[in-house]
Amino acid sequence: MESMDIDQSNRGASPRLVLKPVDPLESGEGLPYAPENWPNPGDTWHWKVGPRVSGKGHFKDRYLFPPKHLPGLDTETMPRNKVFRSRRSLERYIRHTFPGADVPKFFASFSWTIPCRDGIMPQKQVSLPVYSSDEDPMLDIGCDIAVCKAGNGKCRSLMPQSEAETLPTMPCDICCGEPKFCSDCCCILCCKFITLEHGGYSYIKCEALVSEGHICGHVAHVKCALRASMAGTIRGSIGLDAEYYCRRCDAKKDLVPHVSKFLGICQSVEYQGDVEEILNLGTCILRGSQRDNAKELLNCIESTVIKLKCGTSLEDLWNNDNRLAIWSGISANGEAKDNVTLESLQDVTPIGPIPFNHEAEMHKIEEEINEVLNALRKAQESEYQIAEGKLHAQKECLGDLYRQLEKEKSELSRRVSGADVNSLMTIVLKRLDQVRKEVTKLREMEEVAKGFGRTPRGVLEEYFHLSIED
């Protein structure tokens, strides 16, 4: 039988509560650490603890998540993710929203203090803001939290922040309302964790101002954004040119400065395969751009990849190419440069002829062509399946109309005169008109024989329910 640990500081907490010790960052729902059936039967609250443990063996940081349907949770004073971080803020909310509630009885129904499992040392590495007795952390919606909502121990919010990262992020009520989504470390497109490996080159953070003193702050994998046509050079309504489009706030971010950091990052990478992967991602971002600085950076990256494939060592690569030093933000005397311009690149001594391996390039081109042909085959198969389903459905529709018409004509032939004959004649004529319209529709649908690309847009949208962009 588990030992009983009564929370004496909880203002008369029920002695029947069994306080089972938990691990850092652990979460759960209901008793003994969160209310149940309050304020309505079936309402369950969720709880979570942070990483810090006091000398008495209790968690210093505990968080309480209320049911989403409770009133007063969508105000400006409510913290991000709708979480209570202090007992005082929770008491203030209950007294304001439920004036008739018995607050002491409410807090006595569960334990605010949560014990830590034995053998776990107090956490001193992570620091949280210290609030005075007159402050309510709920009112500071931009404060840093030393616990990741998604349970990611390597979350960006748990890492030391640079002085440049001074503006807090603005939480949203869409993705941030999900129980396991953290805007600091979860990709807004795939919801999986980002990685800080190699300087965090593989993700993008939206730093657009969305309100006074707050930025969007949502992050996305570069590859996810490329696959979703939200990064790189995209024609059409979005109109991106080596840029990133944030799905959350609709802001655009220039990706040339992001890619320019890749060369500097690669100088600290030990394995050539990782270097090529980073540079290939930069190529995908810059390819097709019409901007001069993007084109110059793309040429620099492509020539670097070719030299690597031709056998140039990483050490020789970084030591002998002045253009790489400039793009990676390093001047000749080792000082960091703020901006890279075409004028600075024009002053660089030419690097000489680049060794060329035509067999490797032809193999790369062959692979690209095979990928294009496979994609075309899949697209054509998909179009065929759509056309097959719609055309056969139209055939069945016409078959039903023909059967109804035969039945009505047979009924008409058995009648000699009277009002019924006139009524049946009207029905038959309407049925014939309906058949003619459906036959005309079938003829228009048969235009897909030319291929979807040459079929009139109106036909695809009306009969095949395909939305065609300009």
Automatic annotation (TrEMBL):
Its main location: nucleus. Keywords: Coiled coil, Metal-binding, Nucleus, Zinc, Zinc-finger. Residues 1-12 have a biased composition (Polar residues). Residues 358-463 form the DUF7615 domain. Residues 1-21 are annotated as: Disordered. Residues 362-422 form a coiled coil. Pfam families: DUF7081, DUF7615, PHD_Oberon. It is found in: Nucleus. It comes from the Eukaryota. InterPro entries: DUF7081, DUF7615, Oberon-like_PHD. This is Protein OBERON 1-like. It comes from Camelina sativa. The lineage of its organism: Eukaryota, Viridiplantae, Streptophyta, Embryophyta, Tracheophyta. The gene is LOC104763266.
